[in-house]
Each structure stands twice: as C-alpha cells, then as structure tokens.
Amino acid sequence: MVWKYQAAIMTLGMTALGAHAITTNYTSTVDPTKLNIPNIEQTTSHDVVAQCKYYQPPFTLDKAAWPNSWEIATSNGMNTSAEYTALYNSIDWTKAPANVKQKTKGPDGALNLQGYDTANDPDCWWSASQCTKPKAQGVNADIVNCLEPNTWGLTYDDGPNCSHNAFYDFLEQNNQKASMFYIGSNVIAWPYGAMRGLKDGHHLAGHTWSHQLMTTLSNQEVLAELYYTAKAIKYVTGVTPLYWRPAQGDLDDRVRWIASQLNMTAILWNLDTDDWAANTMPGVTPETVQQNYKNFIQMGSNGTFNTVGNIVLSHEINNMTMDFAMQNYPEIKKNYKHIVDVATCMNFTNSIYIEKSITYPTFDQLVNQNASTATGSGVSPGASGSSMGTQTTVNGALFIAALFGVVASLF
C-alpha cells in the first residue's frame, strides 16, 4: 500500500474544520478485521536472531513523511511540514494551562525537581507526587486501576518487540488479552508485530514515538510524539488509539491537556514490577523483580483488591521481561479471579479507537465467556459490520489525523 500526500486534499479538509466536534466518515487502506500476516520466520520462529531479521514491510514508507526513528517526533522536519502545521494550528493553545511550565532534566538525564512545589503540586506532576487527578480544566483524568475487584490489569510497554513470538504465542494459548502500549518507532520498524497484537485481540495503545520524558518537551514536541505514534498504529493496523501511556509515567497537566486535544487519555498503573530494570539499574536484580511479582500476586488473595483491581506495569522490552511475565502467569491466575486488559476491565468496549469497527467484550461478557469473535480476528466487529466508512466524532485536532486516512485511500 502506498500513501501519497496531496496538499489540495488537506486544504479541502481544513476548510471543513468549523465546530470543535466534527463527525466524519473516513476510510483506511487497512481493514483491521482482516489483517494478513505472512507465514515467514520473522512471524513464526522462536529463535531471537531469526525473528529480528529485517523484512520488507507490507507498504511503501515515504521516510520524508515521518520523524526519524527513535528521535523526538519533530525530527526530520515534521514540525514544519504542512500536515503537522495544520494539526498544530487547529488547536486553541490559548486554552492550555497557562502556569504549567516545561520541566527540565539534570546533567544525569533525570528529571530536575529542584524548586518545584512538591507539597502543593500545582501542575499535578506525576513524577513529583504521583498525582493522577488533574487540577487544570479541560483535561482528561488518568486511569490508574481496574474498577473490577480481584482483577489483575495486564499491561505491557515498549512493544512491538521483534522477538516476541514465543510470548504472544503463550498469551494466545492461554486465551489471554492484554493492553499493549506500542512505541511509534517500533510499530514502523516491526509492523507485523503490531498487526499480530491487534489480530490476537489485544488492546493497542500508544507509548510515544521515541520514549522521551514528556514533561521536558515543548508543546510542539509533545503533540508530535503523541500524533505520530497514533498515526503509525493507524497506518500499520487500521485503528487509531485513544489511550496512551507516558514513558516512566512522566506527565503533568500541560501534557495531559495536549493529549486531551487528540481525545487521548493516559493509562498509568498502581503496581510496578520494575522488570525492565533487572541487571540494568543499580540494586535491581532478577530476584528483585521476582519478589515484586510475588508480593503483587499475594495481594490477590490477601484482600488488598477486594473492592477494586490493579493495573500492573510490565514490559515487552526484552526476553527477560517477557520471561518474567510467562513464568509468573500461572500464580497470578491462581490468586486473582480475573486477568484482563484495561479496555475490558473498564468496559470501554468500542471506545478505545476512533474506528468503531473493532469492539471488545464487556467485563461481564468476558467473565461469562459470552464474547463473540470475528472471523480471522481476535476482536469483534462493530455494529456497522465494516471497517470502511466508519462514523466517528472527534475534535478539530483529531480530524486532521483522520483526514490523512482519507487521503491515503484516495490515491
């Protein structure tokens, strides 16, 4: 599939931006209910080297239309492109939280909290206070735990990992769905991995383009990190995520407000396995991570989550973190009544993507084994029965993202 940018079409679309909320019909070159993943060693082998060999993606990628891989998403001239400029200018920046300033990093690359009023936390800065209830107006509140009792909210960051076949096979064999927070650069690099995530019925969400500390970025950079990640997931899988997770949980009301302009809501966590840090950060060993898992597993039977569930931060980042997940899964299942993705435990059903062609089961449906499954896909089709011409209500900024799906299908 080849996506071609046409300035005339973009201009036409921009003239349609009148009201804040816009209802539009748009098509995509990818039908998310009929994803085709070839039977090649990169998609079937459990050998790490074989899985991570380069393969020709199922599309022609115009590198000039995308940020550089693993660089801040304004790179490669994205911040001055017609596409991004139209998106940026469609947002009313006068309504952004006025007093929430861009944060800084110290010489060691860590966040600089010096001088910040942590006690009063005016910015609802998670990294300073773990604040999750915004203090600014017009900002979507974070999701931090599953509402269903005795429930383990299963989430994995940093995918798609090129060597995840054994892990995804394990989840499939156990009929287990999770929320997968994908990095935009990884989605473009390993598109069949992202396709499999959706085809297997997992809940796909964004995890920024290049895994930056979001509060240290400018408004332009924050918007680009979110937008190009959503664009990459849409480009590859046919769905546009409405949920995301910031790297290291770093967000404040300025970042939340920008995400809210794209109708995006952050999903955080209330338990952190620290799996990524094993043998990487001082004092964190595989035994440390295993003890974290053990402690969290015990909470499932000691009454900690009798009234609400949890959301657990874990990672697809490498084979060690995926091994932790597989090794501990049987004990999690023994100690918790339910293990589900966040979309299901929050009963989002068909409000996780812009497109309404993909529907997830409600919590009760999943528990009662009544959720239907679409042919050739791990998710159910929406009421429209088609991924083409879906009707979606979005704000003016998000309309731009949708518009480029239309442009892609017309040329």
From TrEMBL:
Signal peptide: 1-21
Statement: the UniProt record of this protein carries the keyword Transmembrane: no
Stored Gene3D superfamilies: Glycoside hydrolase/deacetylase
Cofactor(s) in the UniProt record: Co(2+)
Coiled-coil regions, chain positions: none
Cell location: Cell membrane; Secreted, Cell wall
Protein name: chitin deacetylase
Keywords, in A-Z order: Carbohydrate metabolism, Cell membrane, Cell wall, Cell wall biogenesis/degradation, Chitin degradation, Cobalt, Glycoprotein, GPI-anchor, Hydrolase, Lipoprotein, Membrane, Metal-binding, Polysaccharide degradation, Secreted, Signal
GO molecular function: chitin deacetylase activity; metal ion binding
Chief site of localization: membrane
Family as reported in the entry's similarity comment: Belongs to the polysaccharide deacetylase family.
NodB homology domain span: 150-345
